[in-house]
Amino acid sequence: SRIAVFASGQGSNFAALIAAERVGLLGGGSIELLVSDKPEAPVAQRAEEAGVSTLLLRPKEFASRELYEAEIVAELQRREIGLIVLAGYMRLITPVLLTPYAGRIINIHPSLLPAFAGKDAMGQALDYGVKLTGVTVHFVDGGMDTGPVIAQRSLVVEDNDTATSLAERIHKVEYELYPEVVAALAAERIGLVGRKTIIREK
Ligand code: GRF
């Protein structure tokens, strides 16, 4: 499958996905495009260095969210993109993108959903004082981190954890888990019935 990664920030997950593809760990998926709503974001630079095409748009320059997304959909269709992988893309998605990509758009979130949806999930978890947190990969729907869960990994919050130390361990988990799930989706090994997903083993 031809994959577009959407990202707004640092792009370390984008880099992990590119690295996984290079060593044959993306299940026949190929990353063809980076879409970003922040043309100045470090992820755009990473894509250029990796030789991945970019679509860099400023949503503010469009009359509506729908028109912004319609421009993206046109480009995805032109490039025959089959899967959308959100990796730190900080925007809600509308039906303009969701309808043509139903069941083919996923996100990664740095908490065990449904706990700590939305922004700064790791900060929310630390403030709450939970002893366990983790990473969730889920299908995307119109809500904020609300779609069906595909995979979760937990990790222990240590007594001396800071935002930095926790983020470092969360990221490590993300860089392993996301390529595995993208590979499964690219190989059509993920089933979805209602909210329940099943990953078929290779
Ligand atoms: C990740 O922690 C991801 O879970 C969240 O946004 C962050 C993106 O980090 N959705 P990066 O841009 O991949 O470094």
TrEMBL record:
Domain Formyl transferase N-terminal: 2-182
Gene Ontology BP annotations: 'de novo' IMP biosynthetic process
Pathway(s) it belongs to: Purine metabolism; IMP biosynthesis via de novo pathway; N(2)-formyl-N(1)-(5-phospho-D-ribosyl)glycinamide from N(1)-(5-phospho-D-ribosyl)glycinamide (10-formyl THF route): step 1/1
Positions of the record's site feature: Raises pKa of active site His: D145
EC number: 2.1.2.2
MF (Gene Ontology): phosphoribosylglycinamide formyltransferase activity
Record-linked InterPro entries: Formyl_transf_N, Formyl_transf_N_sf, GART
Catalysed reaction, written as an equation: N(1)-(5-phospho-beta-D-ribosyl)glycinamide + (6R)-10-formyltetrahydrofolate = N(2)-formyl-N(1)-(5-phospho-beta-D-ribosyl)glycinamide + (6S)-5,6,7,8-tetrahydrofolate + H(+)
Residue sites binding (6R)-10-formyltetrahydrofolate per the record: R65, M90, R91, L92, I93, N107
Keywords: Purine biosynthesis, Transferase
Keyword Iron applies: no
Binding site for N(1)-(5-phospho-beta-D-ribosyl)glycinamide: G11, S12, N13
GO cellular component terms, A-Z: cytosol
Domain of life assignment: Bacteria
Active site, renumbered: H109 (proton donor)
Similarity field: Belongs to the GART family.
Free-text function comment from the UniProt entry: Catalyzes the transfer of a formyl group from 10-formyltetrahydrofolate to 5-phospho-ribosyl-glycinamide (GAR), producing 5-phospho-ribosyl-N-formylglycinamide (FGAR) and tetrahydrofolate.
Protein name as it appears in the record: Phosphoribosylglycinamide formyltransferase
Native source organism of the sequence: Paenibacillus monticola
Gene: purN
